[in-house]
Amino acid sequence: xxYLAVIVAAVAGFGFGAVWYMTLAKPWxxxxxxxxxxxxRPENESPLxxxxxxxxxxxxxxxxxxxxxxxxxxxxxxxxxxxxGIGLFFISPWIMIxxxxxxxxxxxxxxxGGYATFGCAVMGLVLxxx
Length: 130
What we know:
The protein contains five helices and no strands. The N and C termini lie close together (8 Å). By secondary structure, it is mainly α. The protein is globular. It has helices at residues 2-23, 25-32, 48-71, 76-101, 106-129.
């Protein structure tokens, strides 16, 4: 059952990311400095980032499940709040550090950190439901 929970949580996080970045596509591509074609699609688009992202979502969901099990996080609300905390206080600051060192706009940190925060909340909610 744990493996299924991890896969479902990873899919939910990935799906949330699709909605998040489709909604914020224009500000994200501008902040990230990504060149786009006349249709607003990134030039030289590749499936590789999506493959890597899917793999990363499984890793994050798997570690969240493990941490939740050890911490007694066993309800949807506890999962939601814990996931929110992981995204807001672990992942988002790391994104901020990485972006600061390479001189990326703070707007990019807000967009990507928002995804980390709310994506982890979604994954935590799903894990809490299992």
